[in-house]
Amino acid sequence: GQRVGIFGEVTGVLGHENDVEDYFATAGGSYAISRSLVFDVGATIGLNDEAPDFQILFGVTVNLGAPASWF
How does pLDDT run across 11-42, given as a tens digit for each residue? Predict the structure, then answer.
């Protein structure tokens, strides 16, 4: 199967009054160690003055199986 992936998105963060306060562009990549474990890394760039200028992201995704198998 495919072990390496890339992703990109544009995101907004809602504030206390349900208005979008921060806008970001995010890009990154992922590497699947196995079918149940994926590591990813990326970076965000703030698109407006309220958003942080730059952030680095790290993540881990663990596949727990189908929800029906949890019970």
Answer: 988 877 777 788 999 999 999 999 889 999 99
12: number of CA atoms within 13 Å, CB side?
A: 7
What DSSP string runs through the chain? ---EEEEEEEEEEE-TTS-EEEEEEEEEEEEEEETTEEEEEEEEEE-STTS-SEEEEEEEEE----GGGG-
CB neighbours of residue 52 within 10 Å: 10
* CA–CA distance, 26 with 20 (Å, rounded to integer): 17
Tokens of 2: 């495919």
Rounded distance between C-alpha atoms, residue 36 and residue 29, angstroms: 17
pLDDT at 69: 64
Query: With a threshold of 0.85, does the pTM exceed it?
Result: no
